[in-house]
From TrEMBL:
The gene is mshD. One of its GO terms (molecular function) is mycothiol synthase activity. InterPro entries: Acyl_CoA_acyltransferase, Bact_Acetyltransf, GNAT_dom, Mycothiol_AcTrfase. Transmembrane segments: none annotated. GO terms for biological process: mycothiol biosynthetic process. 1D-myo-inositol 2-(L-cysteinylamino)-2-deoxy-alpha-D-glucopyranoside binds at E38, E196, K236, E247, Y285. Keywords: Acyltransferase, Repeat, Transferase. This is Mycothiol acetyltransferase. Acetyl-CoA 2 binds at L251, G252, V253, N290, P291, R292, V293, V294, H295.
């Protein structure tokens, strides 16, 4: 049977969303890494802004065995990023390439009728875990690595000083519902140069706060004498494959308070919080191109365990300069 790529959908039906979640779980089990990031997984549930979804199925009557889901593509128009996954037993059949061409045809920089349109330089294609098949797929599309995201982990328990505190004039507290606007403001200021995290809106934050794992007590904040948030450590704890794992979900400090020990104090407080609540390990994600922050995490006991890579089409002149 031939492969059918569905037209782009801005909202998936619940049955199709469940199929995508099941496919993601199968791919994660096979490859050892989740093929979709949290933002893409949230978009499956209907929370989506400037998103499109494509499904790859075998042709056949609806309801027949030939309608199984073989692949999926997700495009985030706000961040101009693409994520693609293909069922482990359906690879090397051109499904990933077909999905990629469908995404390219959909973008505003290419005509939908031109299947051979060049890939826009603005699109970034994420490969989680940076495994050889993903590297080969990116190369087949003429893409080069342009960004790295380090996955760092530490096992618990660990030695963290409970005496280490915030600078004078600041106090540690937990998030309150009336902190939302200030939280978003500090996040934007702290991550102004970060294409994803810096774009977080109040709606984005609320969507994450609606998840089962969210605990307001685990969103630690540093307040000044006026009660305003100047930094925060948003922690996350989930049970994964029988292990209770914590995550440094977001750690941000307002630029006015940088280089004054606020980030380190919030990091230590978050580690202790997760350790006290039974976490057996902690993970985090950090830009490979931010050595200062990477060093802070390494000095706290985190080690690099894998790397996520973003690929893009490099302009010819830039490619020549690299060579």
């Amino acid at each position: 049977m031939s492969i059918v790529i569905t037209p782009p959908a801005i909202l998936l039906s619940e049955p199709d969303a469940d199929l995508v979640r099941a496919l993601a779980a199968d791919v994660a089990s096979s490859d050892g890494v989740m093929p979709l990031n949290e933002s893409a997984r949230l978009a499956l549930g209907g929370y989506a802004h400037l998103r499109s979804h494509w499904l790859a199925r075998e042709s056949g009557p609806i309801g027949s065995s030939g309608r199984s889901l073989l692949g999926y593509a997700h495009w985030d128009g706000r961040e101009q990023t693409v994520q693609i996954m293909v069922a482990p037993d359906a690879r090397r059949r051109g499904i990933g390439t077909a999905l990629a061409r469908a995404v390219v045809g959909h973008t505003s920089l290419a005509r939908a009728s031109n299947e051979n349109a060049p890939i826009p330089e603005s699109l970034m294609w994420w490969a989680f875990g940076s495994q050889p098949p993903a590297q080969g797929f990116a190369a087949s599309l003429g893409l080069r690595p342009v960004r790295g995201l380090l996955v760092m982990s530490m096992t618990l328990p660990c030695e963290v000083s409970r005496a280490a505190g915030l600078p004078e004039g600041l106090r540690l507290d937990s998030y309150r519902s009336d902190d939302l606007d200030r939280l978003v403001e500090v996040n934007h200021a702290a991550f102004e140069q970060h294409p994803e995290q810096g774009a977080m809106t109040a709606a984005d934050a609320l969507a994450r706060m609606s998840q089962d794992w969210f605990d307001p007590a685990g969103l630690l904040v540093a307040r000044d004498d006026a009660g305003r948030i100047v930094g925060f450590h948003w922690t996350k704890i989930e049970t994964v494959a029988g292990t209770r794992r914590g995550e440094v979900y977001v750690l941000g400090v307002h630029p006015d308070w940088e280089h004054r020990g606020v980030g380190r104090a919030l990091l230590d407080a978050g580690i202790l919080h997760m350790q006290d609540r039974g976490a057996q390990a902690i993970d985090l994600y950090v830009e490979a191109g931010n050595p200062r922050v990477v060093h802070m995490y390494q000095s706290s006991g985190f080690q690099v365990t894998s790397t996520d890579t973003a690929y893009a089409r490099v302009p010819a002149e830039a490619d020549q300069e690299q060579n």
